[in-house]
Amino acid sequence: MSESEPVNIGHLSRFERLDHEDLVKVVNAGTYVRLPANWSLIWERTPADKAYLIVSGEVSVRKAGKEIARLGAGDVIGEMAIVEHKLRSASVVSLTPLEVIHFTDDAIQRIREQVPAFDEALRQTAAERLGSTGD
After folding, report:
1. What is the pLDDT of residue 99?
2. Are 7 and 55 in contact (CB under 8 A)?
3. Domain ranges in the chain?
4. 44, 61, 91, 126: which could form a disulfide with 69 (CB 3.0–4.6 Å)?
5. pLDDT one-digit tens code per residue, 19-28
6. In angstroms, how far is CA 125 from the centroid of its own chain?
């Protein structure tokens, strides 16, 4: 991540259990990106090659074109397919301008090994979403 774009994710509830050193590792594993509203971040039924941590803004999660959820700051999107080694189960489109941290598949795998609390947060998120979507 660029030193000119400091990002504090410690206030995001999903990551409140990570200590400062682990938060720095997570942020530095990704790339800070600003995206406009109506931007397609992830497409249903495509391979898992990236994930995003939403720092600010809101997205729509859509399955077969129908909105099934709205997510915002603190949510990670795209992690389910990486954690479960499956194709994407939904598409994600920004509803507002977004600030995100973009992670490649390799970066997610690396940071999951380096920061067990981050891995636990991703697994918990994936399990919650699988339970709520019936997948």
Report:
1. 94
2. yes
3. 13-133
4. 61
5. 888 888 888 9
6. 10
**Residue 113, Cβ density class (10 Å: 0-12 exposed, 13-18 middle, ≥19 buried):** exposed
13-133, CATH topology level: Jelly Rolls (2.60.120)
Determine which helix (DSSP H) or strand (DSSP E) holds 70, and give its type and residue range: strand 66-72
How many Cα atoms sit within 13 Å of 2 on the Cβ side? Answer: 6
Whether residue 99 contacts residue 52, with contact meaning beta carbons closer than 8 Å, is answered with no
Structure tokens at 124: 């918990």
Q: Is the pLDDT of residue 3 over 50?
A: no
Q: In terms of pLDDT, which residue wins out, 98 or 26?
A: 98
Contact between 84 and 36 under an 8 Å Cβ cutoff? The reply is no
Closest CA to 42 of 2, 1, 82: 82
